[in-house]
Amino acid sequence: MKKATDKAAEPEMRAEYDFSRGIRGKYARRYGQGANVVVLEADVAKVFPNAEAVNDSLRALAGIIRRQHKALAGK
Predict the structure, then answer these.
(1) Domain map of the chain by residue range?
(2) What is the pTM (predicted TM-score) of this model?
């Protein structure tokens, strides 16, 4: 049997969150173009300082995979 949860007990937003300088819709256009969110394991995330490093590494790996596929197709 599941426990009943009282959702009214906790406020939706914490008081310390300050969105007063936020910009509404700042990323809406980019999100509309398509968004892929990938969550990295902690040990992998430690290797990459930012999203650019992750993307550069994945592009390099994709290039290696394409070359291997071409080499195997040519045999």
Answers:
(1) 42-75
(2) 0.52
Helix (H) or strand (E) holding 50: none
Tokens of 66: 């394409």
Nearest C-alpha neighbor of 63 from the set 55, 74, 53, 51: 55
Distance of CA 56 to the CA centre of its chain: 15
Q: Which residue has the tokens 């290039």?
A: 63
Arithmetic mean of pLDDT, 8-37:
82
CA distance 74 to 68: 10
Write the pLDDT tens digit of every residue in 41-55: 999 999 999 999 999
DSSP 15: T
> CA torsion 45→48→54→59, rounded to 10°?
-130
